[in-house]
Amino acid sequence: MATNVTVIEPSGILDGTKAAKFCQEIDQLVMNRVDIIVVDFKNVTFMDSSGLGALVQSLKMTREVNVKLLLCSFNDQIKMLFELTGMDRVFEIFHGREELEQKINTNS
After folding, report:
1. To the nearest 10°, the Cα dihedral for 77, 86, 29, 75?
2. Cα 60 to the chain's mean position, in Å?
3. Which partner for 5 in 25, 36, 37, 95 could form a disulfide, CB atoms 3.0-4.6 Å apart?
4. Helix or strand run (H / E) with residue 70
């Protein structure tokens, strides 16, 4: 059985003004019955606590329906935010998209 993987690439600043839209996008993907959602942060320049909250909410939503939520390509600010809040131990995070794709292909 093929794995249905969808990649989303937020850009700019992920804060309170974009958090609701981000959650809606994840919700839509869950309703479309994807197996894995990849959030690639390569174009995100900054994320605040609202953005982090949107990710936590998205993780809860995906876990309820057995959808994997994988993250990759953090810049130093986002990496530090995750480490300071302990979220680096909650989410499955990959250095880059290549590493993440290898993991997906290995598990398929």
Report:
1. 20
2. 12
3. 36
4. strand 68-72
> At 74, which CATH number?
3.30.750.24
Domain boundaries, position 20: 5-107
The answer to whether the CB of 9 falls within 8 A of the CB of 97 is no
- In order of 21, 49, 54, 71, 73, the CA distances from 98 in angstroms are 27, 27, 25, 12, 10
Q: How far does Cα 37 stand from its chain's mean position? A: 7
* Number of domains into which the chain is organized: 1
AA identity, residue 104: I
Terminal-residue alpha carbon distance, the chain: 8
Q: What is the pLDDT along the chain (108 residues), one digit of tens a residue?
A: 458 999 999 999 999 999 999 999 999 999 999 999 999 999 999 999 999 999 999 999 999 999 999 999 999 999 999 999 999 999 999 999 999 999 888 876
